[in-house]
Amino acid sequence: MADRSLRGIRLGAQSLQSEEGVVFMERTQTAYTCDTCGHVTTLMFAADAEPPATWECRACGAEARLQIDGKPVEVEDNGDKSGRTHWDMLLERRTRAELEELLEERLAFIRARRGAGDDPTRERIGA
Fold first, then answer.
1. Domain span at 110
2. Cα angle vertex 86, ends 81, 87, to 5°?
3. Residue 31 is inside which H or E element, if any?
């Protein structure tokens, strides 16, 4: 019965793959300097890849700029719009006066539904 037992290795013990015959891509080392804290972040990119002009600083989270030959690269503002908020999109569709009018209508509807109209005997809860 011992000759029919299954044999194996422990889970996670060793990889069965090897690096034999694998050709690694050529890489270049790229440095980014943080303007806020002066921390230098070093990253590896493929040699044929264009590194981004900015990277998040690992020390403080601020924006770090790419360094080429020890000098920081000037970041070009390409005019892309920043992310729009819900408020920005709302102001594109309606004016502020229209929004205030809609707010008053909705508040009146909610107050009428709750029965909290102009009843002075009713005590307010909260602030």
1. 83-116
2. 90
3. strand 27-34
Total number of domains constituting the chain = 2
Residue 117 is given by DSSP the state: S
pTM above 0.70, yes or no: no
* Residue indicated by tokens 């924006």: 63
**Cα–Cα distance for residue pair 62/41, rounded to 1 Å:** 12
User: Average pLDDT, whole number, for the chain?
Assistant: 82
Are 35 and 68 in a shared domain? yes
CA pair distance 9, 16, nearest whole angstrom: 10
The CATH number of the domain where 64 resides is what?
2.20.28.270
87 and 66, same structural domain?
no
Q: How far is CA 114 from the centre of its chain?
A: 41
Residue with tokens 């980014």: 32
CA distance 41 to 32: 5
